Amino acid sequence: GTRLLYLGTGRDHVDITAPEGARVFLLGGEPFEADIVMWWNFVGRSHDEIEEAREAWEAGAPRFGTVVDHGPERVPAPPLPAVRLTPRRRRV
User: What is the distance between the alpha carbons of residues 18 and 8, in angstroms, rounded to a whole number?
Assistant: First the structure.
């Protein structure tokens, strides 16, 4: 089955074994120093960055790449809310 694990900080490697073929997706990195704004599929440091990312997404900017076997159609981003997006407080 599918599993999602949070491995914490302070690691310099991860050992992975599987009894048969497996697909692994590892996502990691240093936590952002600043508070972040998250909305839909975007993460930024401000409402303005999210707005810029949404506009770039809607314009088909190549920075977002493509999803293999999905075809050329992109899922449209919903309209931004009628209020300014505010940062989430950083949790360590």
Answer: 21
For the stretch 76-86, pLDDT in tens is 999 999 999 99
Cα angle 80-75-72, degrees, rounded to a multiple of 5:
140
Q: CB burial class (10 A; 0-12, 13-18, 19+) of residue 11?
A: exposed
First to last CA, the chain: 29
* pLDDT tens readout for residues 15-37: 888 888 888 888 877 777 788 99
Tokens standing for residue 55: 């506009």
Q: How far apart are CA 68 and CA 50, in angstroms?
A: 25
